[in-house]
Amino acid sequence: MTIRPQPLMRTLAAAVLSLVIGAPAALADEPVTLTMYNGQHKEIGDAIAKAYEAKTGIHINIRKGSSNQLASQIIEEGACSPADIIYTEESPPLNNLGELGLLAKIDDVTANMMPKEYVGANGTWMGITARTRIVVFNPKKIDEKDLPTTVMDFANPEWEGRVGYVPTSGAFQEQAVAILKMHGREATEEWLTGLKAFGKTYTNNMVALKAVEKGEVAAVLVNNYYWYALERERGKLDSKLYYLADGDAGNLVTISGAAVVKASKHPKEAQALLNWMASEEGQRVITQTTAEYPLHKGMVSDRGLKPFDELRPPKISPADLGNAEEAIELEREVGLL
């Protein structure tokens, strides 16, 4: 005897089949959510996420941490990493990830937006914005004419208790790498030893900057954008910026950078986000949040910074800084870390 399906059963079966067949299409229409590992300042990551979602509808989950911590996390996670983009405050963590094969090659269109010296040699990471190392000094504590012309002199006894620095800062470690490349290991060890003996250490760059503003020390070694951030917050400052001699390691230009993580489950969308960060629109969002230099070819800062083409840094690119391992090792040896 043949049992025929009842009309109700046929209707239910058709409905279930329709749901099953239609499910992938429905899911495909759902907007992608990206995950950014953000080693940059929180407000910068938040500004990017807000502007990009408003433009594209794509939500960005932000996982905040230090650049080195987040890079180590990606190494540990490997192919299972949930990260789509990593955005760092300095280049060595990106260089390390690129060497380990954990980053995807950047689309040529995106890479070509930036000067080639700010793109990793293997094409897997790029500078997003730039900053310069600087001396901030308090004119009430020292005349500008009495400041040295080289960062090396701040390790001398006459600066005892008068110069501040942040040994845990990635930018300070990059500066130590520059000194290594320019002057060798022995001179770098002497510089770090002198700073430890005569300088004052601070926990972060803003704390150091506020110390010189209050007259606690005569000068500090920091990145330029901290001074502009404090100026925006307070108005006129007592402290001033000072640029060392042309080509000196004290004028090192460093970058904040980004890359697409090879393990990304949304590589096309991750590449599109990186492209937007490198575009004029994305660069403007970032540089209105932090007083860094846009790296997009032809763009200039509108934050009152010294023009980028007037900076006289040493001829050391972010790629030349490598992983900063030797500088970190030296800091440990002299007791700074």
Question: Which features does this protein show?
Answer:
337 residues; alpha/beta; D-Maltodextrin-Binding Protein, domain 2; 2 domains; 10-stranded mixed beta sheet; 42% helix; 15% strand
Describe the structure.
There is one protein chain. The chain is α/β, with parallel strands linked by helices. The chain folds into two domains: 31-130 and 255-308, 3-Layer(aba) Sandwich (D-Maltodextrin-Binding Protein, domain 2); 131-252 and 324-334, 3-Layer(aba) Sandwich (D-Maltodextrin-Binding Protein, domain 2). It has twelve helices and ten strands. Strands 1, 2, 3, 4, 5, 6, 7, 8, 9 and 10 form a ten-stranded mixed sheet that branches. Strand 1 (33-38), helix 2 (42-56) and strand 2 (59-64) form a beta-alpha-beta unit. Helix 3 runs parallel beside helix 4 (92-99) and helix 6 crosses helix 12 (325-334). The chain is globular. The model is unreliable at 1-28 (pLDDT under 50).
Short description:
The protein has 337 residues and is of the alpha/beta class. The chain folds into 2 domains: 31-130 and 255-308, D-Maltodextrin-Binding Protein, domain 2; 131-252 and 324-334, Periplasmic binding protein-like II (D-Maltodextrin-Binding Protein, domain 2).
